[in-house]
Write a structure and sequence with these properties.
Elements (H helix, E strand, L loop, with lengths): L90 H4 L25 H9 L21 H6 L3 H14 L5 H17 L3 H16 L4 H11 L2 H8 L1 H4 L3 H21 L4 H24 L3 H8 L4 E2 L3 E2 L1 H14 L2 H12 L6 H14 L3 H14 L4 H13 L3 H14 L1 H4 L3 H14 L3 H15 L15
Antiparallel strand pairs: 1-2
Length: 472
């Protein structure tokens, strides 16, 4: 809300237009602008202040009646002087259109729910592993062990500690520092989602947007949503429908976000940086929509959505995205269309040679040419032994040739090489558990050993169904 201002004594210069206030959380590019002429300190040089009035001049008497004495005259009365300098553009004027936001509701402790002190992995350990062999796991969420640093917690998948830390910082924050508070809210909600606490994430996200949607007046609310609210929070809010089982509603919410990104990009054509930012956001939303369509097994729609993104403005190609489109077509059984995109990547000089070999291996697998697929994957691993996607695909190719023991050895060697990385790759763990089941009846013992190894390295949020151990 703008405060009324008194009119200045002199006519102000023509308005030059105030710069847009950049979003402090998203770090959008700031607009540059020229400052208006600032006022001089004191009187301008060369302008003398009026001198004291001189003594009254002699009064001429009229013959009939005396006239009134004339007003004293300054010797500089008709002297030309420069125009009055324009008033300086103060910080208060620069911020007069920025609404003041003081959102106490965002920092209330009642906005949050308690995090459970157990998880499915601990349940499996209790059921299958004796106490003397059970690796210790910290479910307290104590973030002080990392010294309050966020990076070590993220690297160890300590989402419980991150969620607690974000909550504690929110309730201690100044309600006026809305961008900082909203960034902590995103940290809190994304950590809960990583822990697969989807009901709790939905409840707390609903509380957050209830406060945001109640901001008055409308101008302040519009400014909050357009300039301060992180775009990632809007994407997370759209995902609430997915967690509620409404996949079509999720697609509708994402489509609305995509339309907004397109409209913002068109409106920001005069600002290349802002237009690029909204274009990039729209591309990210397209990828999320494509993932949802693939989950719904609508492969044709997903590929049709992604194909326009393969060629960027200026003739820049995206071999990685084109390879992803080809894999989508393979999943849908459209081998000819997949071959077309794989061939385009193979001819692209900017494409990574490893990407080309991986595409060749996948296409050979789709055609049932397992020896060729194995050869291509082994070439990849010869130059990059830690390419665990190639390791996983090699195990699948070996299994399809009936080389079960070799497939198990490939996966176990990768697990020993980098356990902290492998235990977070759920498809890898699922394939290894499946191979254990296929080998012999002793597969249950091997899966219990795998459970112990996973518990040593895994953080929070592992989908335990990948271990294929029943909980009941």
């Amino acid at each position: 809300m703008e405060l009324p201002r008194a009119e200045p004594l002199v006519s102000p210069p023509a308005p030059a237009g105030e710069p847009e206030v950049p979003d402090p959380f998203l770090r959008e590019p700031e607009d540059t602008y020229e400052d208006q002429a600032s006022a001089s300190d004191g009187a301008a040089e060369g302008i003398s202040s009026p001198s004291a009035l001189p003594a009254a001049e002699e009064i001429m008497l009229a013959p009939a009646q005396p006239s009134a004495p004339s007003a004293p005259r300054s010797p500089g009365l008709n002297k030309s002087v420069p125009p009055t300098p324009s008033p300086a553009a103060s910080d208060e004027e620069d911020e007069e259109d920025v609404p003041e936001l003081f959102l106490v509701g965002l920092v209330l402790p009642t906005m949050f729910l308690p995090i459970p002190n157990t998880d499915p992995l601990s349940t499996l350990l209790t059921k299958y592993i004796s106490p003397d062999k059970r690796p210790p796991r910290d479910l307290t969420g104590d973030y002080s062990r990392a010294g309050g640093e966020l990076h070590p917690l993220i690297m160890t998948n300590s989402w419980r500690a991150i969620a607690r830390q974000a909550r504690d910082r929110i309730v201690e924050a100044d309600p006026e520092d809305v961008p900082y508070i909203l960034s902590l809210w995103y940290l809190r909600l994304s950590s809960l989602a990583r822990m697969r606490l989807f009901n709790q994430t939905s409840a707390e996200c609903t509380n957050l947007f209830a406060v945001l949607n109640a901001v008055e007046p409308r101008e302040a609310r519009d400014y909050l949503f357009d300039r301060i609210l992180p775009f990632e929070l809007e994407v997370l809010h759209a995902r609430l429908k997915y967690w509620a089982g409404d996949h079509i509603g999720h697609l509708d919410a994402l489509a609305a976000l995509l339309r907004r990104c397109k409209a913002k990009a068109r409106a920001a054509r005069a600002d290349p940086a802002a237009a690029a930012m909204w274009t990039e956001r729209g591309a990210r939303v397209c990828l999320i929509i494509a993932s949802q369509l693939i989950e719904m097994r609508d492969y044709t729609a997903a590929a049709t959505l992604l194909e326009p993104l393969c060629s960027q403005p200026g003739g820049v190609s995206s071999p990685a995205l084109r390879s992803a489109v080809a894999r989508v077509y393979l999943q849908g059984g459209y081998v000819a269309l997949a071959a077309k995109h794989f061939a385009a990547v193979a001819e692209d000089p900017t494409a990574d040679p490893v990407q080309k070999r991986m595409n060749a291996a996948l296409f050979a697998s789709a055609e049932g040419d397992w020896p060729r697929a194995i050869a291509e994957l082994q070439r990849i691993l010869a130059t990059d032994p830690e390419n665990f996607a190639a390791v996983n695909n090699l195990a699948v190719a070996l299994l399809n040739q009936g080389r079960l023991q070799e497939a198990i050895q490939v996966l176990e060697a990768a697990l020993q090489m980098s356990p902290a990385t492998i235990v977070t790759a759920e498809p890898f763990l699922f394939n290894l558990s499946t191979l254990y089941e296929l080998r012999s009846a002793a597969g249950a013992d091997k899966k219990r050993e795998l459970l112990i190894e996973v518990a040593k390295w895994a953080g929070d949020g592992l989908r335990t169904t990948c271990l294929k151990l029943p909980t009941t």
